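Dear support,

Our group has been running a series of protein-ligand predictions, and this particular one with S-adenosylmethionine is the one our PI (initials K.S.) wants archived with full inputs and outputs. We had some confusion internally about which version of the output was final, so please treat the block below as the authoritative record. The input we submitted was:
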Amino acid sequence: MGFHTYPLERAAALDDPGRYRYCSREELADAILEGPKGTVLDLGCGTGFFTNDIARFVDRIIAVDIQPEMLELLLKNSPPSNVHPVASSIDHLPIASGSVSVAFSTMTFHEYATPAAHAEVKRVLQPDGLLVAIDWTRDGSGESGPALDERYNVKMAVDQLQTAGYHIVETATRPETFVVIARVA
Ligand SMILES: C[S@@+](CC[C@H](N)C(=O)[O-])C[C@H]1O[C@@H](n2cnc3c(N)ncnc32)[C@H](O)[C@@H]1O
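Confirmed final output from the archive:
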């Protein structure tokens, strides 16, 4: 696991409202708004499906993706003016230390999760910053999303984040996805 990219020929599927079956705008906004106000960071934003949903609730959102083509698609989706796309790998963010209030990722943790990426996200979060990760669980049925052996479950994600120095605030496992909410310890 660790670093992956998303097949561009399937990028349109990221804009399918049927995805709210697995992660809703409401639950994501609710989790993000538990954190401090300020700059929010979307880790692996893709076409901006969730970025644009969340933008209306926050001051500023930096949308990071390693695939510049994804950011071009995000721009075609007419993002609000407080969305700032940045082409970058999560393990080397061109963002000042301690400048992000909340970082979140949707269906992307299995693609970027490495010790270097966790350390880098922690570096850019402010001392009371929050991380919200929602992803496909290895304990799911595999009815949608990546192959089960390409995923983590909530325990695996928690272990990684605790090793990286995060304090776990809340976790949940649902039929196909997990949620981890963590603070910089
Ligand atoms: C499955 S898509 C999900 C996109 C978006 N979060 C959503 O839910 O619609 C994962 C995205 O993460 C990006 N990605 C994967 N690994 C990354 C990394 N190490 N750094 C930055 N972006 C990454 C991919 O390029 C892809 O656009």
